[in-house]
Amino acid sequence: MAQTTVFKKVLKDPLGAGGMFIILLAFFVAVFAYLLIPDHTPNANQMNLAIAGKKPGFTVEVLRLQKEVTTESTWWEQLLNGKDLPYREVAVAKTEEGENILKYTEYTGSGDGIEKSIDRDQLYAGDYLVQKKFHLGTDKYGRDLLSRLLLGARISFSVGFVSVFISLIIGIPMGAIAGYYGGFVDKLIMWIINVVWSIPTLLLVIAITLALGKGFWQVFIAVGFTMWVEVARVVRGQILSVKEKEYIQAAHVLGFSDFRIIFKHILPNVLAPVIVISAANFAAAILIESGLSFLGIGAQPPMPSWGGMIKDHYAYLIVDKAYLAIAPGIAIMLLVLSFMMLGNSLRDALDVRKV
């Protein structure tokens, strides 16, 4: 089936098209996050405890004080990692201009902040007094919640892409070899698959993560090594169903190597279910990563992760700031649901039995 035909069928399905749109939008946000978010510092980790836990739409006046920037970064580094700001920010309740000094009262929310003064040469050379608006409010450390939420999409997409890639790299060859050769090779690979399959996924991921250590890259490996069994089983079943077809027998007669028959003649004709299961695995990887971060063994602070954001703020669910935990939860739900809807749409589009 032509790729354009499959794409058209997906677009005609409202759920599939909607899921694809949300995925593409989230991917765009993940790639260009530092160009879109208000907080451009690395990991959107600019803290200000004086304004912690403020509600959406909160506005405060901020005084910028000059500081030295030790490292220069290229535009590419800024796109990937953000940039260190040449100033530090202090939330202020009021300011009073002097001849050579600036007097200000620090913001506390209660109106009884400490009054301080600073020489003008210590102020930021640009706009040293600005109004900042936090569209989704601030978290318990005074960081911009919107910035952390959008930047958190990077973690989910990164884990999804790398984990699915690892699962395909391992699962496709294992399943292909088992299905094509059969016999003892098939029994051995299926034994390995069944052993891995029998272990609860989250438990195996936790064990691998603890063995490799806590961190971002460890999650990639842990999730990827637990997903290959599904890919291998699907590929094995598909190859078993087509390896006796006439065109495969013709390839044998022509003297083609097993490697060429498997990877050039068989696999291209059985990739449709692999594509569908990859979409489901992508969604599962996002959920697993969120669960690991919630447990504290996934992406480590200050790296923004949706699961980590829920962990930091789940206690707020019983007070009037439940949105701090609900917002990342909704982000996880939307992205996982989008991949599942796209996967279902691809399954229908790739099904040759449907007209």
From TrEMBL:
Keywords: Cell membrane, Membrane, Transmembrane, Transmembrane helix, Transport. CDD domains: TM_PBP2. Residues 153-343 form the ABC transmembrane type-1 domain. Pfam families: BPD_transp_1. It is a multi-pass membrane protein. It comes from the Bacteria. One of its GO terms (biological process) is transmembrane transport. The keyword Cell membrane applies. It is found in: Cell membrane. The chain crosses the membrane at residues 15-37, 155-181, 188-210, 266-288, 322-343. GO terms for cellular component: plasma membrane. The keyword ATP-binding does not apply. PANTHER family: D,D-DIPEPTIDE TRANSPORT SYSTEM PERMEASE PROTEIN DDPC-RELATED, OLIGOPEPTIDE TRANSPORT SYSTEM PERMEASE PROTEIN APPC. Belongs to the binding-protein-dependent transport system permease family. This is ABC-type dipeptide/oligopeptide/nickel transport system, permease component. It comes from Owenweeksia hongkongensis (strain DSM 17368 / CIP 108786 / JCM 12287 / NRRL B-23963 / UST20020801).
